[in-house]
Amino acid sequence: MISKIELKQLFTNIRFWIFLFFIIRLVGITNPPLETGHNWRQVITNMVARNMVEKNAQFFYPEIDMAGELSGISGSEFPFFNWLIYLFSLLFDYSHWLGRLINLVVSSIGIFYFYKLIKSYFSKEIAFNAAIILLASLWFSFSRKIMPDTFSVSLVFIGMYYGSSFLKSNNRLQLLLFFIFTTLGVLCKLPVIYLFGLYALVFFSKTIDNQKKIAIGTSLVITTILAYIWYFVWVEYLFQNYHYQLFFPKSFQQGLMEIKAFIPETFEQFYFSALRSYLALLFVVVGLFFFFKKEKLLLKSTFLIVVMVFVVFIIKTGNVFPTHNYYVLPFVPVMAFLAAYGLNKVPLKLSYVLLVVIVFEGALNQQHDFFIKDSEKYKLTLEQIASSSIEKEALIIINGGESPQELYFTNRKGWTVEHSKLLLPTFIDSLANRGAAYLILDKKREPKVTTNYPTVYTDDFFEIIKLKE
Fold it and tell me: Is 437 helix (H, G, I), strand (E, B) or coil?
């Protein structure tokens, strides 16, 4: 029998909860990227990884499938996450879901380091509550998606913990680990660089040795330079030479104008999307009040620096931020900390009850993301259909709209287009002239497309039309 003391120790051990949430999120872990939420972003990640596997694509030349007649080489995030999928594919063969498991493992480890970081500077209770709130936030669903967002933040948390340990011990190995993990995190997803604002605490501290400040500062500068080289030099080089761009950063003026048109949606990212719990949001407000009331000026100033840098990121993304909920993910840990800080102001037993409510509210608001609708599973037949009717190197057109999801499942290169464009008299011919050899029609989309080209395959869901002899 487990004693009450042992039971209490178990339930107050963050490792237990991280493991429990890990097990819960294994539900549907082998699902292909067919869920409603951001399947398009996940298949882009998988495209790069699969091309590494099948074409021995080079690490510094990430290649996607939706660039039409172009090579598909495109500048995007540093492909470390894709490369890990590639490595696991060498061991277990490529599968649509490998990225889910990799992200879940790394993001779970990241939660633990997030907890350790907060515990080392605040209380164990605040650290515990912050970790639990983060587990039930938007992190709950996105930490199992084939996307580098929670993955990158987790790497930065790991790096920051070792940086903190270096400041306390002067251990050079920990400095190296700080540099490696922080650099990989920032390279995988540039917006997490806003967390560098926290190092104002280091540079303005009177108790930290100047040599340690120089060591940390030098590491951060090198990381920033490497991130600049990748995103603003190498990505531009790939665009100039291979002519396909996935992401389009906005100017400040353009970004502000776009955000202005989406002000309600922008605020929604913070008051609901981030934590998925209105109760948690209430304690963010409470935490913010007490944080500015009780903490030292340096800590409050550092928080404002972090917020201002993140606001710059919001502006640079323009209307993408308010219309894509995962762009708020890097800031969710800050909100989880504030909620925990506020929750710490209520009696301990009541705080546990409130924490349970926050967890249930957050998880239930995301449980639908763990399952795939039966109506979407027909898309999984695409690769088999394409294999029997379309040569591997042939370029295709598919009426998948802006999302490259269906193109990805064909395992072919080409164009994914809006169905309405196929109704235009010369549109299909124009792509055929650029090299398209086949047209795949998803029959669920109406009205029906008629052409003078021969049909070489048809079933209840798809029709394949040959555009070239």
Answer: strand
Tell me which residue of 91, 83, 266, 104 sits closest to 187, measured CA to CA: 83
Cα(180)–Cα(452) distance, rounded to whole angstroms?
Answer: 57
**Residue (of 19, 333, 303, 361) closest to 150 by Cα position:** 333
CB 246 within 8 A of CB 235: no
- pTM exceeds cut of 0.85: yes
Task: Determine contact, residues 137/363, Cβ cutoff 8 Å.
Answer: no
The CA distance from 223 to 263, in Å, is 33
How would you write 234-260 as a 3-class SS string?
HHHHHHHHHCCECCCCCCHHHHHHHHH
The pLDDT tens digits of the residues spanning 328-387 come to 999 999 999 999 999 999 998 999 999 999 999 999 999 999 999 999 999 999 999 999
Backbone angles phi, psi at 458, to 5 degrees: -155, 145
- Is the distance from CB of 146 to CB of 42 less than 8 angstroms? yes
DSSP for 173-202, please give it.
HHHHHHHHHHHHHHHH-GGGGGGGGGGHHH
Q: Which residue has the tokens 């239930």?
A: 364
Write down the pLDDT at residue 1. Answer: 61
The rounded radius of gyration (Å) of the Cα atoms in the chain is 24
Ordered by start, the domain boundaries in the chain are 24-370, 374-466
Q: Render the burial of 57-83: b for 16+ CB within 10 Å, e for the rest.
A: beeebbbbbbbbeeebbbbbbbbbbbe
